Amino acid sequence: MKKIVILFTALLALTSCKSLIEEWQPVFTGTYPDVPAQEAVNIKANTTIAQLCALYNGKPVEIRKNIIISGVVVTDDQPGNFYKSLYIQDETAGIELKIGKNGLYNDYRPGQTLYVRCNGLTLGQYGYKSGNYGGNGMLSLGYSDPSGTYETSYIENSLIIDEHILKGPIGEIPEPVVMTESQLPSKNSSQVDNIYLGRLVTLKGLKYANEVFCLLYLDSNKDKKSYTNRVFLSPTNIANNPTCGITTWAMSKNKMKEYLLTGIWDECKVGSGNNYTGETLADLKGENGQYDGVEKAAYSVSQYFTMGSTTIQVRTSGFCKFADEEIPTALLDGTATLDITGILTLYEGSIQFTVNSANDFVINQ
Q1: How many CB atoms lie within 10 A of CB 228?
Q2: How do strand 94-98 and strand 138-142 relate by DSSP bridges?
Q3: H-helix or E-strand containing 331?
């Protein structure tokens, strides 16, 4: 098996970065032929997830030791809100496994124990930002990124995936911990010092913060880091309308086009940060009224909530099954609160939360 893995490593290096172009892409949510669960493997973990994360020293760590972790699968990509990755957790922490395949729920069932041979994989961080307005991101396990753009990339070859990730028994999904505000991570927390990061948890009594964020691209085939190709939907880009008129959890392609054609985003400036082209979306509206200079595509949206004095970004993929579901009016106007269950993460020091399905939203009126 080791010889086979070596033969495929070069091919993997050429292909592993392609799926990093977008954090979320269309996800296959049908059902593959049923695969019998693998019998419990003759292997034991010798390292906790928190101990593994403690090896990170500010740059990617290529693991060259016989480190084995285990954890229970706590995410489900069938509804489409997770893309080519899953989270496992043990008693000490949770971590993302970057597996470059769709339909992971058919191979790795929620509640199933997985054993991960870490030797040959890379531990890296995604979402770190330095400075007073930044903070930590999340540590994940994947393959080394030959381009150097990211600290980890996806493991995309089935033979290599099977060499590293072994299936154990299928059990129950762990009961999520109901967290208090004092247990939430700070912007400099990590999976080493906050046991809830990367794990399935429940937050209760969240209030709508009357704010959204979404990043649009004028052309996804052009440089996505260029300010000339970006439009921020945020409170700073639309005066007196901090929600930008978005009342759904995210936006499918059709929903994004529907919002755009209402003209509600017309005053949004093209650009990002302190760099702007001088154009607005209204300037890109053709005589046909179709905004031909703006790409119509599905987009993830961060809807902001508060838990006490702490802000929580509930981030949802535009490709998930419930992207276009309307947020209840009672939640938007502040007469109701939200209980939510999902994966707790950090991005640039900000708390982000991702649910498995729409069933993870509970409205309290």
Answers
A1: 15
A2: parallel
A3: helix 329-332
Q: What are the pLDDT digits (tens) for 281-317?
A: 999 999 898 999 999 999 999 999 999 999 999 999 9
Q: Quick one: residue 103, left, alpha or beta (phi over 0 = left, psi -120 to 50 = alpha)? A: left
* pLDDT(5) > 50: no
Write out the two tokens for 125.
């961080």
Q: What is the mean pLDDT of the chain?
A: 90
Tokens in use for 89? 């957790």
CA distance 268 to 297: 17
Which numeric CATH code is attached to 2-173? 2.40.50
The answer to whether 17 touches 153, Cβ cutoff 8 Å, is yes
331 phi, psi to nearest 5 deg: -75, -40
Which residues, other chains included, contact 46 with Cβ-Cβ below 8 Å and sequence gap of 6+? 66, 67, 68
Range(s) within the chain of domains with CATH label 2.40.50: 2-173
Please determine, for residue 322, whether its predicted confidence score (pLDDT) is greater than 70.
yes
